[in-house]
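Example with several molecule types.
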Amino acid sequence: MSGEKMKLYWFSGSTPCWRVLIVLEEKGFHDNTELKHIDLFKQEHKSAEVIKLNPRGQVPTFVDKDININESHAICDYLETCYGDCGKKLIPSEKRAMSRVLQRMHEAHNNFQNAIIENIIYYCMLTEKEKWDHDLLERKYVIARNELQRWEDYLKKVHEEGGIYIVGDDFTMADIYLYPHVAFCVRFGLDISTYPELEKYYNTLAQRPSINKTWPPTWRSTNDEYRYLTKL
Amino acid sequence: MSGEKMKLYWFSGSTPCWRVLIVLEEKGFHDNTELKHIDLFKQEHKSAEVIKLNPRGQVPTFVDKDININESHAICDYLETCYGDCGKKLIPSEKRAMSRVLQRMHEAHNNFQNAIIENIIYYCMLTEKEKWDHDLLERKYVIARNELQRWEDYLKKVHEEGGIYIVGDDFTMADIYLYPHVAFCVRFGLDISTYPELEKYYNTLAQRPSINKTWPPTWRSTNDEYRYLTKL
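Resulting structure tokens for the full complex:
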């Protein structure tokens, strides 16, 4: 390990890893970070090298010189707080703007993730298909649709006012918390055209260099197998 | 509503609300904040007054003059960032210390909460007792015990080094993220004496004024009914 370079252990398709990659790119650190891809299917996250840095054996695992920090949201906060002046500022200093960014960050982290990703994708992933409780799934779909509609409404207002990002006219940490979740849903079968404002957001931000460049390489091909969100 | 006072809509027994109350107390704002208790059992969180400020109809709902911010972690971050110099500083500025606090904050928020609170308490709460899947519950207990043991080990090291807080010798936002979870587990039947380091942490910090003063009033009486964690 270089004594000076940042180092990130990551996995293609992990939204927590993707979040960190986007922050590194926005801050101008990406090309100077040693990236080590960890194949979860080969249990590489349980290797001695990773466990030493991250006893939970998870990715992202991150090193900045002699500082080691792992949880994705912690890494994002750390990079923004310690390197606020490098590259793009991702959490504004002005109180009102900050409050809006923090609000959407944590709604994306908690509500969006719980209502859709944990609630349906992880449920379907972790339960044998023969054991899926279809009545329960129907109730989960209602919750997920309501959550998607809420973000659709947020973005409708943004678009009406001429903005393109989740808080309006500025790309912020709120987009970095939200966007990988939206893309994850699309990856797992969400027909994004059902939600035209979300579709516009999804397509517009896909062109942003920090997002386009760090797009999970394994997502460049189609996923026909795990389409859990087709009913939303 | 006063134009100048902060205002918090809260519910006794909600750990997200408790987190915010502790921060307000640590910052010296608690006694100057208008506190409005919202009875979730009476659906008061769905009242027009709350919905206007928080379309999700949840607590905590928070107002600082003309700024409105709701998600508990967002409120905590907001208060610490905007009022860092008031009262107790809760996230250190020095990079290494900050990284440790952020790491434990997000482990408490994600891992502790998922492995124990979501995994067991909410499962038992939201599933009719006759439908509990006991094989699944046994697997959940293993995950929860592992998570508790991890924090037990963290605290063993802290205590050996003479500290009392989760990052050692300083009370920080990491304690504010963690402590209400630990107390919630005790409230729902965890025999904390099974984990002596956690027990010491639990009892020691219970005496801290910000925690003692804001202890959920409804938790002053015993809870004999909802003891979901007796097998941990």
